Amino acid sequence: MPLSIAALSPRTASSATPPASRGRLLLNLLLLSSLSSVLLMADDFLQQLFTPANHAELELRFVLVVFLFSLALWLCAMPRLVSALLVMLAGMQLIQLGHVSFFGEPLNAMDIASLFSDWAEVQETAWHSLGDHWNVLPSVLLPYGLLLWLHRTLPARIALPRSRWALLIIVLVLGAKPYRATYRDFSAFTPGPTRSALHNSFNAFTYFGVRLAFREQESLPPAPFSPYRIIAQPSQTRHIWVVVADSLRTDRLPMYGYSRNTTPTLNRLHASGQLLARPGIAAGVATAVSLPNLLNAIREPGQPHLLRQQPHNLFALARRTGFKTHWVSAQESKLLSHLGQRHLDVSITREDYPLRFLERHDHTLIDLLAEQGWQSPSFAVINLRTAHLPYEENYDQHDEPVALWPTDAALPREVRQANAYDNALRYLDDVLEGIIQQFEQLEGERYLLITGDHGQLLGEDGRWGHNDLRAEVAEVPVMVLAREAPAEALHALEDKRWISHYQAARWTAQRLGWHIDNPNQRAGEHFVQGKLLFGDNLIQRVVETEQGLRYEEPRLLSRWLRQLPATDQPQPQLGDTRSPAPAATPNG
């Protein structure tokens, strides 16, 4: 917006101001606006001194917007407003650069939704990871602290032009993105790795604030799927336990070809032909997504009514055939959301025994299982936290014989975190050994199914954690230990190269005495959902091929649903092709 001297406040300038003075005022304004622009975008380049995860580059268009914004901040002459805006931006940038440092990619709106829904977990992980990511604090606080100091001190010492018209510029700059979010979908606000972190923050926080925060999720196009049919069938099963281990990757287990013996108990059972093991495909990239889809036996995304009505919920089906239902979890009770809590006879979480879990961590589950006095028949889901971040917190206080790989602070992050994860798996195996001992004390036909809720990124392509639609997060193990069971009970699993969460749930329902007939099912086709359970979400279609699993590019659920009626055949495949995991058989 052109600057009119006539519009300037008479306190510092007027139409009578000598030309030399007017020139000096404008020069001061341009210099401070340029310096402010540099400081607003400096956090990226400061972070790049510490980590290669930040790929931000300067974009001329955004630089001009930042300069215009900086100019307006100096012109408006409202230090309290400017301070509030700078504090807000600094807070956004702390979250943004923290996400880049930890996960290796920019923050998006769905990450923000996950952050607030899992705030306690985020705090714990951030605190224990501070040693690796401390550089975020100076990268943000130094430039923004200097900006605050400049705006609080210089206006009283340096003559500057002033204009209330500058407020219009601020409103236009800050309001353009929210207005755009009212009519554009998520794809228009996805972050770019080479964009300025401030640009990505504007996009992410804007879309979150306008479309996700404090409001019901937008309705999706109707899903053109036929309802599943539930058919009762004979079953002699007396007990079935499902163990879900958090963040469990397939390729870090020796029975799937990993060089380290991270799970000696499971490996021994597999080598002796007692444990069936197959590579699996998770239903989602986050616990709050994969568990509800697994325990409600849902294959196709875009069917929220199945999560609410739960017509084929495994706890409900178990109860209908006389099983006593149990949920025993080392995690918080909020995970029970949409899992079928109303169908539970026994529900135990870490919040019920906080001191015991603080002292014994996941080993507490072994003690709790021993106290249940199992009645036949029983159906139990046992939820472990052992391999969840921060890994060391799960195992470093125990005297159990856990073989440790080094996690010295001097080691590179990739090595240290990979070793800590393997240590956590070794501890997981020790917990599973205790659970298996409890399982072996039961009588009659019984099954123990072990899987992960999702996998975990350990630095691949600079990425960490989960919540990403990537193969390392989608692929989980599926293992079954059967006792006093007919041979045909495992045939449906033995014949598969991969077992999805949906297929594992369908097989579990059969053991409980129910056949789930899904007319929508296509052989060799699977779905992995993004981090949101409801509303529009990124999803990924995964197809089995002779060469391995083929991953399509992630797509917005709403767009995929709109195209379904006209799509009767699989679409051309995009994305990477993964080689099949080693075919693990119960005979080793």
Task: Describe this protein's structure.
By secondary structure, this protein is α/β, with parallel strands linked by helices. The protein is 42% helix and 14% strand. It has helices at 19-40, 42-47, 60-76, 79-103, 109-117, 119-128, 130-133, 136-153, 166-181, 197-212, 264-271, 287-295, 304-309, 314-320, 354-360, 363-370, 391-395, 413-440, 471-474, 491-494, 501-512, 557-563, and strands spanning 229-232, 239-245, 275-281, 324-329, 346-348, 378-384, 446-452, 457-458, 464-465, 475-483, 499-500, 514-517, 525-529, 538-545, 548-551, 555-556, 577-578. α3 (60-76) packs across α9 (166-181) and α4 (79-103) crosses α10. The longest helix is centred in the C-terminal third of the chain and has 28 residues, at 413-440. The radius of gyration is 28 Å and the shape is elongated.
Summary tags:
588 residues; alpha/beta; Alkaline Phosphatase, subunit A; 2 domains; eight-stranded mixed sheet; five-stranded antiparallel sheet; elongated; disordered N terminus; disordered C terminus
